[in-house]
Structures are given as C-alpha cells and as structure tokens.
Design a protein that fits this description.
2 domains, Glutaredoxin, alpha+beta, single chain, 15 helices, three-stranded antiparallel sheet
Length: 334
C-alpha cells in the first residue's frame, strides 16, 4: 500500500548539545583524538562539549541556560530520559515525540554550522565524513543529516579554488592529457537535465571536441538528494568503467527513479551490469571521493546541476546544448 504522509517537518535539528558523548571519541582517527570533540565534566558537575581545546557547546538546553523554558520542559517530558541519552538524538525517543506531535516524517539537520566553525580543516573534514558514514550505516537519509552532501562550507584559499578549476588527480577524464581545453561538469544522477545532457549533448561534444584531441571532459559528483548520493557511490564503484557505469545509470534513470524502492532498484541495475553494488554503498573510500567532489563544487559556487566550467569560467547549463558549448569554446577556446 502506498504510504501517504500527513504532516512533514522540514526544519528539524540535532545540535551538538544533544549528541551522544562517544559519537566521535570512539571513531575518529588517532591523530585527531586530542583535539577532537569530547564532553568534560567541570568541578561544579556541569558538562561541557570542547573541541580543539576550547568550549564548543553546553550539554542539553540546561547547559545553555534554557532548561526551564525549553520545548521539553514546556511539554513535560525529560530532555535526558537516560544518563547521556537525549531525546533529540535518539531514534526511539525522537519517534515518540513525533507521534505525540502528530508528525509523520522529519528532515533533521545536523550541527553543520558548529562543525564549520572548527578551525583545523583536516579535523573539520574528518568530522563531516565520519558523521555522514554513521548516518549511512544506520540507513538514515544522508540528505537529512548533512544537507544531502551539502556540506559545511568553509572559506577556501584562492589557490584551492584555482586548483578545482583544473583537472584533479582523482577526476574521471575523457580525452587526451594534452588537450588544450577543459570542460568540467558537476552532475546529479537524479537530475533529468543531467540525463538529457549525457544523452543528447555529450556525444556530440565528444565527437567534435574530445575525440579530436581539442578538449578534455571531466564529470564530478554533485548529488542533490540521498538517492543521487547512493547512485554516485555506485558510479564511483565502476572505477575504470566509470563512464560506462554513468551511461548505464543515466539510461535507466526513469526505471530506477520511479520504482517503489529506488535504492533497491539501483542495486539491481548495477548488479545486472556486473558490479558488486551492495559492497559499494558502504565503501568509505568511494564516499570520500563523492564528498571531495561536492566540496570542490561548493568552493566554486555550484548551486544546481548540471553546471559546466569551460576553461576556468562558469557557464551553468549553456543554452543551445552542443551549439552553445561549441560557441563558447570557439570564443574562449585555446
């Protein structure tokens, strides 16, 4: 039977103050342990989240001085029903609260603003990757906890931005290494415009510019939702067959995207193509690659898909398809 939702909350939150105390201490690589997030108990008995040796957040609304007027106090329920377990970050208690409030589904935003305030970029990135893996391993919707891979944006040095405008060692590239022009396409596998570009535009660009040695073409992941994130993991699983895998996914997009269970249909499509699909969606290395693509896109100001960069200039989705791209390359081409 089709599930029909009534009330859907689109702006739920799970802040640092409510997270499990051992969320990161048990999972962070050893080199981040000293500066990583942890909860300390002060001499007066109050608890404090710290990161990088400095205060990060109080623990619970009480730790922020709002205990008596919090939503939990007003509702007459315990914010911390068990020692160290807060309703907002526990599936059992959160679902009880949703039932009490008459909410059928909820989009939960993680503490990305607080994570973005961490100064060490390596630690910041490690927390994002770890948090998203935890969400995925619990079959949560990554889009809910980490903005559909819309990750915390931190200021980027100009040299980083310049680097992203060129071909990266981790990129999937069509074309000769010495081709003078570079086309970079940020795509989402659930995006119909991206599927149209792949089917109708890219083949002509390939024939006229890539196969003739005049341009290199790069696909970078920029998934717009949780299903697209899973599809990107499957595409990355193709390895040297990446472009073949992308072709399979785009050609069957309507089939798996309109299925009752798109995630399961995706796995079936990939398994028919001979890929170990079920191993791919939990592969941390592949997830890191997708996260890296998204972070590069955010640094370059990507807001929608497809977004094309041609010779270091952003053109979005050029009007006119191949004719538009051809006109741009003839104007700015090398």
């Amino acid at each position: 039977m089709e599930k029909r939702f009534g009330v859907i909350s689109a702006d739920g939150h799970c802040r640092v103050m409510h997270l499990p105390f051992d969320l990161w201490t048990k999972r962070l690589p050893r080199k981040f342990q000293d500066n990583g997030p942890r909860v300390l108990q002060k001499p007066d008995g109050t608890r404090q989240w710290v990161v990088e040796g400095r205060p990060w957040s109080g623990v619970g609304w009480g730790g922020l001085g709002w205990g008596k007027v919090s939503c939990y106090a007003r509702a007459g329920v315990a914010e911390e029903p068990e020692p160290g377990i807060f309703r907002a970050a526990n599936a059992k208690y959160r679902c009880e609260d949703m039932d009490r409030d008459g909410v059928d589904a909820e989009l939960v935003n993680g503490p990305y603003e607080q994570i973005a305030a961490i100064k060490d970029p390596e630690l910041r990135a490690a927390l994002v990757r770890l948090g998203a893996r935890i969400a995925a391993s619990r079959r949560a919707v990554v889009v809910g906890l980490f903005g559909g891979l819309l990750l915390p944006e931190a200021p980027r040095a100009q040299e980083d931005i310049d680097k992203f405008l060129g071909v990266l060692p981790s990129d999937h590239v069509l074309g000769k290494a010495d081709a003078p022009n570079v086309i970079i396409d940020y795509f989402s596998l659930t995006c119909p415009h991206c599927a149209n570009f792949h089917a109708a535009v890219l083949p002509q660009v390939k024939r006229e510019w890539i196969d003739t040695g005049r341009a290199r073409f790069v696909y970078r992941n920029f998934p717009s939702d949780s299903i697209a994130t899973r599809a990107s993991l499957l595409a990355e699983c193709g390895g040297p067959r990446f472009f073949e895998t992308i072709d399979v996914l785009f050609k069957s997009q309507v089939e798996w995207l309109t299925a009752p269970k798109p995630e399961e249909e995706l796995l079936k499509v990939m398994e028919r193509a001979g890929l170990p699909a079920r191993d791919c969606v939990s592969n941390g290395r592949l997830f890191d690659k997708v996260v890296g693509d998204v972070q590069s896109g955010q640094a370059l100001g990507v807001k929608f898909t497809p977004t094309l960069f041609i010779n270091e200039q952003k053109y979005g989705n050029p009007e006119g398809g191949v004719l538009g791209i051809d006109a741009i390359l003839r104007q700015v081409g090398r």
